Amino acid sequence: MASSLDQLTEALRRLPGVGVKSAQRMAYHLLQHDRGGAQQLARALEGAVATVRHCARCHTFTEAEVCSTCLDPARERRQLCVVETPADQAAVERSGSYHGLYFVLMGRLSPLDGIGVRDIGLAALLERATDGEVQELIVATNFTAEGEATAHVIAQALKGRGVTVTRLARGVPVGSELEYVDLGTIAHALSDRR
Amino acid sequence: MASSLDQLTEALRRLPGVGVKSAQRMAYHLLQHDRGGAQQLARALEGAVATVRHCARCHTFTEAEVCSTCLDPARERRQLCVVETPADQAAVERSGSYHGLYFVLMGRLSPLDGIGVRDIGLAALLERATDGEVQELIVATNFTAEGEATAHVIAQALKGRGVTVTRLARGVPVGSELEYVDLGTIAHALSDRR
Description:
2 copies of one chain form a homodimer. The first copy, chain A, is an alpha/beta fold and 194 residues long. The first copy, chain A, has helices spanning 3-12, 20-33, 35-51, 68-71, 86-95, 122-129, 145-157, 183-191; strands spanning 53-54, 61-62, 76-83, 100-104, 136-139, 164-167. Chain A has 8 helices and 6 strands; from the N terminus they run αααββαβαβαβαβα. In chain A, helix 5 (86-95) links the parallel strand 3 (76-83) and strand 4 (100-104). The longest helix of chain A has 17 residues, at 35-51. The first copy, chain A, is globular. Chains A and B meet through helix 1, helix 2, helix 3, strand 2 and helix 5 of A and helix 1, helix 2, helix 3, strand 2 and helix 5 of B.
């Protein structure tokens, strides 16, 4: 086994969800069938590391000082939606029913992984949320244990700061049959009925 | 979404088994938590593309003209084991019970994918197998439909060339209980009993 092949396999293992076998398969595939793809990936990695940084206002990935969403004059500046990742932000955007601004935590509280309040930039969020412009903070962290804990901490921190803190509604997903919905969701949908 | 982030996601999708969501997750992870890993991967890709080539004798990946296995004077030169990939070669090596040389097809016959006799370097294998030194060709392609077809073509091509062509034994795997072994395997184990 060649040493630069080993190095490539080792480097591919740093990708999330890639183990020894997958890394080997990826390395073989690139070298045997797609050397152009390997070079393209190398260039894309170098390019992204050199240019991608965080938006100074919402913390999402951008190549500019402030991202295009934050600069968009058509967005409602009184609403701020807090999400965990850029992927979550994209999901909210695709729903087409939100036109305010965002704050991307780039993570969530996860004491087991050593991710505390400081790591998710809560201080920056507080500063952003209390700049006088924001009236409603919509917490759209995931409905997992960690996402709920993060939502709780955010709500506590903003108590009495003159900002309304709301949370995405919990309930039965559109298109689903009650028979197959889990009990916790049904309990929430009952108590939050309207 | 930044354009060099999109380019990175697009490039990551060229890895086998990586779809849109995984590529996005990989890109976010590298940019948020492991920029060093991203640079290491970029360097490893460049390095491997520049230096890794095929061994002139056995076709496996190597950085030299001829790989270290082919050059090893301790190997039995009268036996040649034909495998589909370097990973298969590594598996045979790990078994510790083969001390001959190898020929790595770097693929298998797969008419549905447009991979024919020419693509798996059958001509090079024939030349290698009939160089006067090789007395036994052990066909260790996979026991899949494609691997079996490849084995068949190799056996046909070497008929009457003065080389004994053998195939890995089919049978019940070590450590398995008959009750859970598939019927085809049991049928083979019965007919090949010793």
